[in-house]
Amino acid sequence: MRIVSLLPSATEIVCSLGLRGELVGVSHECDHPPSVATLPKVTRTLIPCEASSHEIDRLVRQRLQTQQALYTLDMETLERLRPDLIVTQALCDVCAVAEAEVQEAACQLPGTPRVLNLEPMSLNDVFDSLLMVGEATGRDTLAKEASAQLKARVEQIAARTRRAVHERARVVHLEWIDPPFNAGHWTPELIELAGGIDCIGNRGKPSCTISWQTVLDAQPDVLFVAICGFDIERSFKDMPILEAQPGWSELPCVRQNRIYVADGHQYFNRPGPRLVDSLEMLAHALYPQVHPIPNGVPAAQRITV
């Protein structure tokens, strides 16, 4: 089977099922596992990544309002790769090539490859995505085993939380800073499993823009920042935007020095196997005495203000 993945989480799922050898093309953002870096790229972004967060947000909103594309498919490369299966998503138009464009492209390709859409909104949906890819690729048994192993790691955290966390911290989790975006989808579930309370709340729904006043009203004990598409270094560049907001120094999370930054490009915003790594990272940040950080999982960086 010849597989093309159009989003990083799908690439990670495909490779976790032992299908790296069948993967013939990936998106411009796919970078894990490292071996996929040598594969042909079949997409590119039309949004300048070097722009400021505010400018990126403005351009994305403008393009969505005018139905302009955020990404383009390299049809010449796709035709050359002759995929049997294209794995993509219809969850978020900001995260990957639009579903309609992928379907239209598939109809033009030799052999009309199957298009598999992954649309996880919860942690269990992510595990189901593994099963869907397993079914589509003939790796059903391996997919069930991989899903079971991930669920076991989640249950370990949930069990420790039930046993040892008696007073839950109030958490605000931002996936964008300028303007602030409250993380939705599976993130409120991760916070609850880790022992926190998502004090804004958006479980099972898309992430959404919020006002700074909403953060002030929430009075979080912990502020966790994992900016979608940004690594640690790029995220740190945006932190002064938050620190300049009115009332910043009076927030409980600031007074208690409980502000954490994580790599939002690699973790939290990729609904694949490493979403469990993200849970372990978050749990350790909230309650390091309860949740040790596993080997191979980076700890979130704590900011001292």
Short description:
With 305 residues, this protein is an alpha/beta fold.
Biggest sheet character: 7 strands, mixed
Number of helical regions: 11
H and E order: EHEEHEHEHEHHEEHEEHEHHEHE
Termini separation comes to 52 Å
Give the tally of structural domains: 2
Helical content class: 40-55%
DSSP summary, beta strand count:
13
The averaged pLDDT comes out at: 92
Return Rg in Å: 20 Å
Instruction: Report the top-level CATH class of the largest domain.
Output: Alpha Beta
The CATH superfamily of the largest domain bears the name Nitrogenase molybdenum iron protein domain
Strand content: 15-25%
CATH architecture of the largest domain: 3-Layer(aba) Sandwich
Descriptive account of the structure:
It is a single chain. The mean pLDDT is 92. The longest helix has 25 residues, at 140-164. The strands form three sheets. Strands 7, 8, 9, 10, 11, 12 and 13 form a seven-stranded mixed β-sheet that branches. A four-stranded parallel β-sheet has the order 2-1-5-6, with helices on both faces. A two-stranded antiparallel sheet has the order 3-4. The N and C termini lie far apart (52 Å). The chain is built from eleven helices and 13 strands. With 305 residues, it is α/β, with parallel strands linked by helices. The chain has helices spanning 8-16, 53-65, 75-81, 99-108, 123-137, 140-164, 187-194, 212-218, 232-243, 252-255, 275-286; strands at 3-5, 23-25, 43-45, 71-73, 85-89, 114-118, 169-176, 181-182, 196-198, 208-209, 222-225, 259-261, 301-303. The protein is 40% helix and 15% strand. It has two domains: 3-144, Rossmann fold; 167-303, Nitrogenase molybdenum iron protein domain (Rossmann fold, 3-Layer(aba) Sandwich).
